[in-house]
Write a structure and sequence with these properties.
With about 280 residues, the protein is of the alpha/beta class. About 45% of the residues lie in helices and about 15% in strands. It is globular. The model has no long low-confidence stretch (mean pLDDT about 95).
Amino acid sequence: MIAVTGATGQLGRLVIEHLLKGLDASQIVAIVRNPEKASDLKTLGIQVRTADYSAPEALKAALTGVEKLLLISSSEVGQRVVQHQNVIDAAQHAGVNLLAYTSLLKVDDSPLMLATEHKETESYLLQSGVGFVLLRNGWYTENYLASIGPALENDGFIGSAQTGRISSAAREDYAEAAARILLSDVPQTGRVYDLAGDESYTLAELCALVSTESGKNIPYIDLPQDEFSAALKQAGLPSPLADMLADSDAGAAQGALFDDSKTLSQVLGHPTRSLRDQVRASL
């Protein structure tokens, strides 16, 4: 059996869709906080088990009989290390053979504030004795596509990435890669994958593409990190999220979101989705 945590989330659902292409639904376990949101998964014949990252005993029960586990990193920044440790401990207790963890691109050298909790999780996983494979995901293109609407309304796209190149990929690509690795007959224990899109771009280049596809001139407006964060908060984003996004842009300016290894497309067996196609779909 293969289990997926956060199974009703955006990434989790996509991973399950791809797992279903190579596995019977009865062999998939969807671990969720709210089973009501997983009624469609249950209808497909997938085993839905309720557990929260902060509930160690529930996690142990949820992982009973599971051979492989995808631990999708928690979205609760500041609490993630303890939450991830709970899942890893439960996996060890349940005798899980392989735990795949969605970490961060080039996490060892990353200047991003997000890197700290991922590094601590990786360290704990290494010491746990549980067999693991690290999926160090780069930036999701959707993180920037979400800003296209506001950019069109306000005649400008703001950020703090300067001329840093960004090798993002679609969430769908990361999900497919995770499923392929979990379904692989090739031993994965101990492997580390730095995953990113085939293309790279600056935010100015992204804006030029949006301008071409939308027919409306959208300039890129680069701001100091603190001003970008303040603008995001003024737009209604929670302070922690605004600070994280501004920090990530600042990290991109230092090359933290760039990778040209094409490891992701090698895992997929096909090119990652093009930026142009993703922009068109978003528009």
